[in-house]
Specification:
By secondary structure, this protein is an alpha+beta fold. Helices cover 46% and strands 29% of the residues.
Length: 175
Amino acid sequence: MELTDKIKELIKDRKWAVFMTVCGISGMLLIMISSLLPENSTKTETERVMRKSFVDTEEYCRNTEKRLGDFLEGIDGAGEVRVYIMAAGGERYVYATEGRRSRSDNKTEEEKKYVMTGSGSERKALIETVECPGITGAAVLCSGADSAAVREKVYHAAAAALDLPTAKIYVAKLK
């Protein structure tokens, strides 16, 4: 018996056709129902990333404060040093892109797309770098700040370490 004859036999049998129709319709209904259900995982993932970013920003500030404080204590006459850092925003993700540029006559066309990893519904953009929050200012308290020379050294050292202008740094005497 040929393959086409077998297929014709199966189609003639009513039970098989009804079964296949019911399976097809139920499959389509399941797909429709799944598209109507809310996606809680996306919302919770976003909330988790936001909380993590806030915690990472605080941790970044604390680490920077400690490192800068240790560094500034090395200045002759500074004495005990406490540092408070102000940061703007949180971590910033920079995603990898791939591009194509074409020139013809007087036109230049450029196309950029994000590089994606994973497959299916698990596709995500590839993170190229994570930028730390921007430091917007600093307050430095040190026991040797009653001396103008020490204050000047602390201003310049903090400005150089944080890549900030001295106008964004405040130095005062520690009680």
